[in-house]
Design goal:
Elements lengths: L13 H19 L4 E6 L15 E4 L8 E9 L5 E18 L14 E7 L18 E2 L14 E2 L2 E3 L4 E8 L2 E9 L3 E2 L3 E6 L5 E8 L2 E4 L2
Parallel strand pairs: 9-14
Antiparallel strand pairs: 1-4, 2-3, 3-4, 4-5, 6-7, 8-11, 9-10, 10-12, 12-13, 13-14
Keywords: Bacterial flagellum biogenesis, Cell projection, Cilium, Flagellum, Periplasm, Signal
Pfam family, one: ChapFlgA_N
GO biological process, one term: bacterial-type flagellum assembly
């Protein structure tokens, strides 16, 4: 609603609308990112905007599918005798310590703690995720090259291959407290927890098991 249809003394002050939007955005961001450093800034409203004063109190809300950080939109609603709803653009800046590479690293590197550090980054630039602890990346293998200072994204990591196709492996099976160990040939590569097929070297029978360690496959319980 634009124009002077509402008397000046009966208008809702813009500052109250902006405060409602910013307070709501801050609460939402804190809930989702409790450890982040947050800065909230609502865009100024059109000076010509004249809305009836809200005697019932303003109610802010997040539109369906709305963002929490970056360029967000917060709805502000009045449910009084003269109801209205306004959508306020809000810039939500959130900074958090995330995992970055200390030096350039090449694809295929199995990460060590000494190659990683934590550094403050703007989360609005990290739409594809991030890691908040070095232990989340240590031992994982890079799937692409990484520059010094670059954020290590979850999509850049894969678990290390512990068994490779054609490798001789130890096959462990057990039940009723008895463990039986034999040898076999892996018919596929796999990381910890992956199911692969193995050809028993003695019986030539193909069995399926789960990779449980370097060169080890466990069958059954």
């Amino acid at each position: 609603m634009l124009g002077g249809a509402v008397a000046a003394d009966a208008q809702e002050p813009h500052v109250r609308i902006l405060d409602a939007a910013e307070s709501f955005a801050l609460a939402e961001a804190k809930q989702g990112l409790p450890r982040a450093k947050l800065h909230i800034s609502a865009s100024p409203l059109d000076a010509r905007l004249a809305l009836p004063a809200c005697t019932q109190g303003l109610n802010a809300f997040k539109p369906s599918g709305g963002r929490v950080i970056g360029n967000a939109v917060i709805g502000v609603r009045c449910a009084g005798p003269h109801p209205w709803t306004l959508y306020v653009p809000v810039q939500v800046s959130a900074r958090l310590a995330v995992v970055v590479a200390v030096r350039p690293l090449v694809r295929g590197t199995q990460l060590m703690a000494s190659e990683l550090a934590l550094a403050d980054r703007d989360l609005s630039n990290l739409a594809y995720g991030y890691l908040t602890g070095k232990t989340q990346a240590v031992g994982q293998v890079l799937t692409r090259d990484v520059m010094a200072g670059q954020v290590v994204l979850p999509a850049m990591l894969s678990p290390p291959i512990l068994v490779r196709r054609g490798q001789m492996v130890t096959v462990m099976s057990g039940g009723s407290g008895i463990e039986v160990t034999t040898e076999g040939v892996a018919l596929a590569s796999g990381s910890r927890g992956q199911a692969i097929k193995v050809r028993n070297s003695h019986s030539q029978r193909i069995i399926e098991g789960v990779v449980s360690g370097p060169g080890k496959v466990t069958v059954g319980g």
